[in-house]
Amino acid sequence: MVSAPPVLELQKLSKVYSGFKANDEISICVPAGEIHAVLGENGAGKSTLMKMVYGVVQPTAGQILWRGKPVEVASPMAARRLGIGMVFQHFSLFESLTVAENTQLFLDDGQSPSSVRGALQDLSSRYGLDVQPDRHVHDLSVGERQRVEILRCLLQSPKLLILDEPTSVLTPQEVERLFVMLQRLSSEGCAILYISHKLQEIQRLCHRATVLQAGRVTGSCSPSQETQATLVAMMIGAATAAMPSAGMTSTSSTQEVKTKAGEAHRLSGLTVKDLSVKSSDPFGVSLKNLTFSVAPGEIVGIAGVSGNGQRELLKVLSGEVRLDNSDAILINSLPSGSLSVSRRRRHGLCVIPEDRLGTGAVPDFSLSDNAFLTGLYTKSLLSRSGLIRHQAVDAFAREIISSFHVKTRSEQSPARSLSGGNLQKFIVGRELLQHPSVLVCEQPTWGVDVNAASQLRQALRDLREQGCAILLISEDLDELFELSDRIMVAFQGRLSPAQPTSESTSQSLGLLMSGVWQ
Amino acid sequence: MRRLTLEPRPVASPVWGWASPVLAVVLTCLTGLLIFALLGKDPIEGFHVFFIRPVSSFWAVMELLLKATPLALCAIGLAVGFRAGIWNIGAEGQFILGAIFATAVALHFGDWPVISLLAMMIAGALGGMTWAAIPAFLRSRFNANEILVSLMLVYVAQLLVSWLVFGPWKDPMGFNFPQTVMFSDASLIPTLIEGQRLNLAFLMMLGSLVIAHVLMNHSRLGFSMRTSGQAPLAALYAGFSNRQSIYMGLLAGGACAGFAGMAEVAGPMGQLTDKLSLGYGFAAIIVAFVGRLHALGILLASLVMALFYVGGEQAQQYLNLPSAMSRVFQGMLLFFLLATDLLVNYRLVLRPSVRS
After folding, report:
1. Secondary element (H or E) of residue A488
2. Interface test with B, best of A56, A317, A343, A362 (most B CBs within 10 A)
3. How far is CA A61 from CA A26, A27, A210, A215, B336, in A?
4. Cβ atoms within 10 Å of A320's Cβ, excluding its own
5. Among A161, B17, B58, B194, which residue has the least CB neighbours within 10 Å?
6. pLDDT < 50 regions, chain B
7. For residue range A200-229, what is the model confidence (pLDDT) as tens digits?
């Protein structure tokens, strides 16, 4: 055992992008069967490092040893041939193909469709991942897509599996199952590189952790021996890093809060009465008899595994899908079911969608243009003659960037150049700075690092203080417990009755997620 | 060992965005000279005939601008659609329909000063829009691919114009040539300078470039169209209608191409024939991309393309080369543009091999 070389060893690996050091002499050693965490804030260089291991980009200097031998990982295909599997944070599935077809494409050998389907079903039931091989990927929720990605890698029985933020979309029960699966893989000798921001998970699951900050290794430890505070200190690099809770506007004067609260009396929040929508998509979820309300100054959470109607509900509330009957949705008492996005937004609604790059923001547009995307409804960004006031748009974008601490070169940078967390801060900022009286948001902190997540959560709390009615759709139970006043659970297009958060536990919600209230 | 590799750029290079079409034009010209040499012609003389002669006199420059007018008109209309992610490649057919509609007006109501011409301009634009509305309807209603539909409608349009000039609209005094009667003076676009063929359509082309630029870059409608083109889901999220941008994208292209077709029959040709287009609608696709879908770029690219057209005619006349020469240049230009565009998103790097 002692003489067996580690599965993966990185020696002083560096990557330089046009003068910017994304990775600076990083060395990591992962023996067989070890679950090794890579911790770090957004932009710390985790993704770049993983991309080099997986052959997506080539290192500028340094060396990768695979089972003791130096190798050049020229491409992801070469990586897979070596036995490296990777599940990306941004998924790499073809939306117009089915799960089985995606898997078949991913495998280099020409396996028949039926054998791929069979293998998928076997693995899926073995690990309890519940994936249907014949569904099209565009019909799958984020959570389901991730399960496909994981399964796809497992089909090749990898010797090293790289997981980027794998648990962020899973229910507690599913996280348990994933951990059991990962531990089983680990005991079978598969090494795992595990990227996550969730310190608790890392402490529970991982044998060792390497901490990155600004492209360098700042620490290496056994996470179970550390406290969360010491781990955060390594990540942020500040010795005094108490758990960050610095909100951006938490010091707003009480007077301001009062006047906003006074205003709130005129506003009545969001009311949904007996809302039923038949899905036009064969794999979509039909919404059935939803009735709930969100009062001003209240956060109501919707828990549940993705694919139980959350996405459909968001689209119906936002106006992307319009109803024939206006009365099912009241936004500040205005019957809105049949109104356009534009009318609803002008009436105080803002929406933060789950998908950032592609829905919440246009990848190739500048941040300025992305600020205009929804800012045009409330921020008077159009001149009287109907032309875009570019200076006002730029100013709005800069306001978002500075008040929400978005790390970017300028407001003219394209949205795709931002890391996931930074882009999310920008999108949340864009919506919140329009001072909505009703906010619907889905997965606002998915894949965002601890620091940014706590900033975003604080911003939502501040908004609640100002009298906004917030509907929070999330699969992160910790987040729901932390923020919500009341919680409902989505299951197959229905919602459980809302119960106060104080009376809910992850066990009770877990039961509701399997539909037991009915 | 060092080796040359392509590395993706973190952000697309704005410099290469503009340098790439310039390089493509240069490479096209150099290869063109090589082809002259291979055909046994003196490259120096070829260069002179192809590139210098068309700009060597006032008259020649006017002719060049005349040629550039339909190219730039078609290209700017296409660019509006392309930026909305609508791949209209049927400008050729829309051009022909514009000419047909305008000719219908000229043949029946062609003698009223000013009014006839105005009616022809409107009819020309409407003709192109009618043709473009077909793929727009099929795309938004049945999700039919607009590339195929608009392309196939080109051939329908060509057959339609042939039928008209061989049949009902044939000039009875025209010695059986497939052409209509010459239009009356009231149905012709006034020229800008006495003795030259360049006409008012050139100025209207410049105007349409400005309008298209403002529409796409400074108006809410243009913004919503660009959003639909880049990220349809984001467009829905922001409340923009993808259907509207399909219709706008195709109708803008149809209107411009139809107007260009009208300007051709009511301008240098003065009648409708079955050989009315020299592939302007297709060449305009190249013009739009070489011009980076940008108004000023399209103006410059249309001049280059016009030079290839005129140069091709000159080469036929003075060098005894086939007229297909200008098509060869068009093809090379697109070919080199596609190649050099790689440098917008990638860069060439000489790196030492990572090998122990």
Report:
1. strand A486-491
2. A362
3. 10, 12, 20, 14, 34
4. 20
5. B194
6. 356
7. 788 889 999 998 887 888 888 888 888 777
* B143-191 tens-digit pLDDT: 999 999 999 999 999 999 999 999 999 988 888 888 999 999 999 999 9
Which chain B residues are closer than 8 Å to A17 by Cβ? 10
Q: Cβ neighbours of residue A446 under 8 Å, at least 6 residues apart?
A: A142, A168, A169, A354, A424, A475, A476
What letter does residue A418 receive in the DSSP assignment?
S
User: Which residues, at least 6 apart from B46, have a Cβ–Cβ distance to it below 8 Å?
Assistant: B32, B33, B36, B37, B315, B319
Which residues from A are below 8 Å from B when comparing CB atoms? 17-18, 58-59, 63, 70, 72, 318-320, 340-342, 345, 351, 353, 355, 358-365, 369, 372-374, 376-377, 382, 386-388, 390, 413-414, 417
Q: Are residues A376 and B220, on separate chains, in Cβ contact within 8 Å?
A: yes
Helix ranges restricted to H, A217-327: 228-236, 254-264, 310-318
The Cα B330–Cα B283 span in angstroms is 7
Contacts of B10 in chain A (CB under 8 A): 17-18, 417
- Per the listing, tokens 């795309």 go with B139
Q: What is the pLDDT of residue B269?
A: 92
* Statement: residue A74 has pLDDT above 70: yes
State the residue for tokens 């096209």.
B28
Query: For residue range A432-455, what is the model confidence (pLDDT) as tens digits?
Result: 999 999 999 999 988 777 888 888
- Nearest-CA residue of chain A relative to B356? A70
Residue to mutate among A12, A336, A387, A441, with most B CBs inside 10 A, is: A387
Most B CBs within 10 Å: which of A338, A373, A416, as the mutation test of the B interface? A373
Q: How far is CA A247 from CA A155, A251, A471, in A?
A: 44, 8, 20
Facing A72 at nearest CB: one of B218, B226, B355: B355
Taking an 8 Å cut-off on Cβ atoms, the answer to whether B223 and A387 are in contact is no
Which chain A residue lies closest to B213 (C-alpha atoms)? A387
As a whole number, the mean pLDDT across chain A is 84
Chain A residues with CB inside 8 Å of B354's CB? Answer: 58-59, 63, 72
Nearest to residue B98, comparing CAs of B200, B207, B327, B251? B251
B16: which chain A residues are within 8 Å (Cβ-Cβ)?
Answer: none
A158, A83 Cβ separation under 8 angstroms? yes
Q: Which amino acid is at A183?
A: Q
Helix ranges restricted to H, A41-109: 46-53, 76-82, 99-106
Tokens 């941004």, residue located: A90
Distance CA B127, CA B119 (A): 12
pLDDT band at A156 (very low <50, low <70, confident <90, very high): confident
How far is it, in rounded angstroms, from Cα A399 to Cα A433? 9
Pair of tokens at residue B14: 């704005």
Residues of B in contact with A355 (CB under 8 A): 233
CATH number of B2-351: 1.10.3470
Contact criterion met (CB < 8 Å) for A320 and B234: no
| Domain at A8-236: CATH code | 3.40.50.300
- Helix, strand, coil share of chain B (percent; to 5): 70, 5, 25
Instruction: Kindly provide the ipTM of the predicted complex, given to two decimals.
Output: 0.86
Is a pLDDT exceeding 90 seen at residue A20? no
Q: What are the residue ranges spanned by the domains of chain A?
A: 8-236
Partner-chain residue, chosen from B11, B227, B356, that has the shortest CB–CB distance to A414: B11
B274-to-A437, A513, B185, B254, B266 alpha-carbon distances in Å: 63, 70, 21, 20, 15
Q: Which residues of B touch A59 (CB under 8 A)?
A: 354
Tokens 């890093």 sit at which residue? A241
CB contact under 8 A, B227 and A373: yes
